């Protein structure tokens, strides 16, 4: 079947854009190993992987207070597990130390410096009585409950614009602080969202010049 010039032009243009976009999209994995950028830091803590920077906007303690309001809460990397948790300044059972994780009511608020798609969250120590909620103004709440350690949760390629706050919180109804009501974050996977590139623009410009000469 012979394609007319208009159809040929459209297909070529789509091909240029698709090739440019696929070349720039990339999976970025935040692996929260001991000693990385978010270990024992509060508001303003950063972690950069493959040119994508994640910044802590705030940390919520077990009592609901904010680090930014003087709560003195921090994120921390659990030393013996290479996983991210929250250190509340004061919590029941002295839970604010490296032996503890995201206890009920504790939350981590963060953002990215580029547009991203949230793809996967890997956690440990999450059981059937623990509820994990991911919230943002960019999407409807994602709520997870599971009974297996080292769980992978599909974040559905959820788009979040640069600078938009995302909250991961232990929203368990039972506020007991013990090992049956907490979790840790081991990995966060995101895709970068490419902007229209110079390759695509140059390609389309060249195509326009060719078509003009044919007219």
UniProtKB/TrEMBL annotation:
Residues 1-25 form the signal peptide. Residues 192-214 form the Ice-binding protein C-terminal domain. It comes from the Bacteria. Pfam families: PEP-CTERM. Keywords: Signal. The keyword Acyltransferase does not apply. InterPro entries: Ice-binding_C. This is PEP-CTERM sorting domain-containing protein. It comes from Oceaniferula flava.
